[in-house]
Design a protein that fits this description.
Blueprint: E1 6-7, E2 22-23, E3 33-37, H1 44-59, E4 66-70, H2 81-93, E5 98-100, H3 104-113, H4 117-125, H5 128-134, H6 139-144, H7 147-157, H8 160-167, E6 173-175, E7 178-180, H9 196-201, H10 204-208, E8 216-219, E9 228-229, E10 233-235, H11 240-243, E11 247-252, E12 255-260
Parallel strand pairs: 3-4, 4-5, 7-8, 8-10
Antiparallel strand pairs: 1-2, 3-11, 6-7, 9-10, 11-12
Helix pairs in contact: 3-4, 3-8, 4-7
């Protein structure tokens, strides 16, 4: 572990007084400002609102290179998944400094949209119906379709540019003393040895862990009413599709702050 939660006042590790060990804040780096946005889940209205708030916040700060990170689960459950993906893709194509993390919902959507019937069935159980309606499928047709029919409809009607875009998302982004993932990391496993299953899906073992990870983990995936902040991780999934509260964390140097559509 990097041990950035602790710093020694002595260059000689053999002479360190454990009682004198101090904590220091994690740092993203002084040369950049980063905003990470939690799970959007088909709420294009909230995404546009939060991006405006981020622009206003950024404009009030000393000029600095700024980057956006979306922590995954852009789709499903909310009513505007197609619109969220389209807006995110337009931002990327316009050259906005923005990066994307793949969530478990993107993982299943991509598999379903490429014809895997088992994934179609699972996709429909985790909020996929709302996504399909946002792409133009009628509620009546959806109710009458079998999984095989839905899979064929997705192959024909979901833009391949959207599927390829979601599949291109990163599993993890490391920056300074932070690592950005969708769900979390497996405790006791080095960051460079993590697997995508855990990065997209993990909950219990990660959420219960109180030991420091290699870096402070910024994540979504697990809904909490407020920001879920601990010394080793910060969760920012505030259940936008249900609560109307989409949350972002801003970071620069060793400072961090939060923005929300409910503020």
């Amino acid at each position: 572990m990097l041990g950035f939660f602790r710093k020694s006042p002595s260059p000689d590790p053999d002479s360190v007084d454990e009682d004198a060990i101090e904590t220091r804040a994690a740092s993203i780096g002084d040369d950049k400002r980063v905003y990470a946005i939690g799970d959007i889940h088909g709420r294009a209205d909230l995404l546009i609102d939060l991006l405006r708030r981020i622009d206003d916040n950024d404009a009030d700060c000393i000029p600095c290179p700024t980057e956006l990170i979306l922590l995954g689960d852009l789709i499903d459950r909310g009513p505007q998944s197609c619109q969220v993906v389209d807006h995110a893709l337009k931002l990327a194509r316009a050259g906005v400094p923005i990066r994307f993390i793949k969530g478990n919902h993107e993982e299943i959507f991509v598999e379903a949209a490429r014809g895997d019937v088992a994934s179609v069935r699972f996709f429909c159980r985790i909020g996929g119906e709302q996504t399909l309606l946002s792409y133009g499928l009628s509620a009546a047709d959806y109710a009458a379709m079998k999984a095989e029919d839905i899979g064929q409809w997705m192959l024909t009607n979901i833009p391949r540019a959207h599927v390829d875009f979601l599949d291109s998302f990163s599993d993890m982004i490391e920056m300074g003393d932070y690592v950005f993932v969708h769900a979390g990391v497996r405790p006791g496993v080095a960051l460079n040895a993590q697997n995508s299953q855990d990065l997209h899906w993990i909950r219990g073992d990660f959420l219960k862990c109180r030991d420091p990870f290699d870096k402070v983990v910024i994540h979504g995936h697990t809904i909490t009413q407020d920001v879920d902040e601990h010394p080793n991780r910060i969760g920012i999934d505030t259940g936008a599709y249900l609560s109307g509260r989409l949350t972002a964390i801003g970071l620069q140097g060793d400072e961090h702050w939060f923005l929300s559509t409910a503020d």
